[in-house]
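Hi team,

Filling in the usual template for the complex we talked about on Friday. All components are listed, including any nucleic acid strands or ligand strings, so the model treats them as one assembly.

SUBMITTER: L.P.
PURPOSE: interface mapping
COMPONENTS: four
RESIDUES: 476
SEQUENCES:
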Amino acid sequence: MVGGAAQDIRGQILAHATRLFARQGFSGTSVQQIAERVGIRKPSLLYHFKSKDTLRREVVEQTLQHFQKVLPELLLSARDHQFDRVMGSLTGFFRDDPDRARLLVREILDQPEEMRERIAKYVTPWVQLLGDQLERAKERDLVRPDVDVEAYAMQVVTSLVANLAFIASMGNVLPDHGAHGAGTDRVIAEMTRIARASLYVDAASPADASDAPAQTPPSRERAIQTHADQRDGEGKKQ
Amino acid sequence: MVGGAAQDIRGQILAHATRLFARQGFSGTSVQQIAERVGIRKPSLLYHFKSKDTLRREVVEQTLQHFQKVLPELLLSARDHQFDRVMGSLTGFFRDDPDRARLLVREILDQPEEMRERIAKYVTPWVQLLGDQLERAKERDLVRPDVDVEAYAMQVVTSLVANLAFIASMGNVLPDHGAHGAGTDRVIAEMTRIARASLYVDAASPADASDAPAQTPPSRERAIQTHADQRDGEGKKQ
DNA sequence: CCTACCGATCGGTAGG
DNA sequence: CCTACCGATCGGTAGG
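RESULT (copied from the run log):
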């Protein structure tokens, strides 16, 4: 309640700054430009954020915090199964606002030191948690023995962010054959397939009945193929 | 011979511009900064390239032309086998000068329209050629039937460029366990493994005779696993 | 949140 | 390839 309107302005500044930094880059965007979109003067903006660089930091922090807030439920609710669900949710975060992906890629290039720290803070814990789960799945012979679980997890995140950032900027480069025209979906589908196929041991090797917990007809139930086509609704360009 | 020295200056400008654009971005780099490194004055630089934007275009064009000049031999000499060799050479191009990767990523974000055209010109033909080869390998049951060959090829290139650009900027994010500290190799090794494992049909599954077409112990001859462990020397975490 | 204003730097041109 | 110089814009401050 207190300062509700001021909060709103701060939020507007952050929102417009995110958009512009993502699309034009930090040094390609002037404080003046951001202020214009918000509908205030430049010195007023600099009252809320005491420098352009402060604004940049808060924009990035906000994006990563949102990521951190949303990620846990996805990964924790998904054990070693539900592969497509995890991929779909992860993809969804960046699809909901592709500027997030563009912003992160730009920051990696522009502020590498800072981003190293932020990744250590926001991403690495989850990569390690996922890595542990995969390591256990490996012991149960569900995951290929030669997977470098940490590098794999990091790779999936990297591909995802890069792909979404690139598509957001230039659209899909693949020729759109077929009537449906959703090239983005095609890229994401193949990316998901690659991630899945390179992770799991292929169709059951019969002999590991010894190994697998008794309960299961192991490879089939894996729930992994569930939504192989998970994104129908939104990103579609029709 | 004619204008040899002038050519040299032009080349120096291009070289320093590539470096600076890759590391600081286009709008984060001033003409003055480039001129300083070359050891000339700003107006002299603008005699060789009539605007900053012209310089940018030539920098990008030069990088892509080098790529185009070097790629054919790699891909043509490699048929459906020699997977690791192709990946290695492709990786090598960007490893030789990681600024190439950073520059391309930046251009995708900064000049998406232009990059769409350039990718269509420089990359798509090779993606399609590779796609054709993979499609044939698919008919011979070497490649997984569900691979989207074009999307796959594009994905491999995208991952490669993104990974190298990120590593060039921030180094490796993975904890360096093991004494040697070559985290880059580890990332590239896992990226290569993912690309290979998600492409080829897996090693013969003994008991699924029921499932598999009668014909084949197909997977053995594949020549594909040649260097399946090409990261022994370097990337291994030991 | 504003007007007024700062020094610094930007890309680029004139003119030789 | 240089000196000299241009108008425009940059991030930011003073002061209210």
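MY TAKE: Residues 205-238 of chain B have pLDDT under 50 and may be disordered. The two ends of chain B are 54 Å apart (CA to CA).

Thanks, L.
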